[in-house]
Amino acid sequence: MEPGQDLPVRRALFTEAPAPLDAAFRSSCDSPGDELRQISRAVVQCRILPPPDVAAFLLLQYDGALEAPTLVVQKETDQSDGSYVVELSYFAEVVQKSGNPRRIYFKQRDLDSLMDELLAATGGIAANT
Fold it and tell me: What is the pLDDT of residues 70-97, one digit of tens each?
């Protein structure tokens, strides 16, 4: 993470397995070029190709290799004491000339609000700090 950057994370508590949220997250990752990736048992990512102007900006601004950057929306679910904590986060990933990916975190109030609404609509209780 860049110095001084806030990790954009939205959290909610669920009293039971968040199946409606899981289904909504998976179904929202279905546009051409989107890729749903299971990172671990607890982490799922929707990897999205950005529009050409955003991709060019990311490559130039963050010294990227000539490989398309990716916008990532990530869902992480942890179970504790019979309840579930779900975190939704988002970032851009730019492959550097060294070949290593670099995560770029950015805050978008509209996206935060949309994520909060999704968490609440699927049964979550906001737990943002």
Answer: 999 999 999 988 899 999 999 999 999 9
Q: Which residues of 44-55 are buried (b: 16+ CB within 10 A; e: fewer)?
A: bbbbbbbeeeeb
Tell whether the torsion through CA atoms of 86, 127, 27 and 59 is positive or negative: negative
Tokens of 12: 């909610």
Give strand pairing partners of 79.
Answer: 84
**Residue 29 vs residues 17, 71, 84, 100: alpha-carbon distances, Å:** 20, 12, 22, 25
Q: What angle do CA 128, 40, 11 make, to 5 degrees?
A: 5
Count CB atoms within 10 A of the CB of residue 76: 17
Distance (Å, whole) CA 129 – CA 117 = 16
Cα distance between residue 47 and residue 63, in whole Å:
20
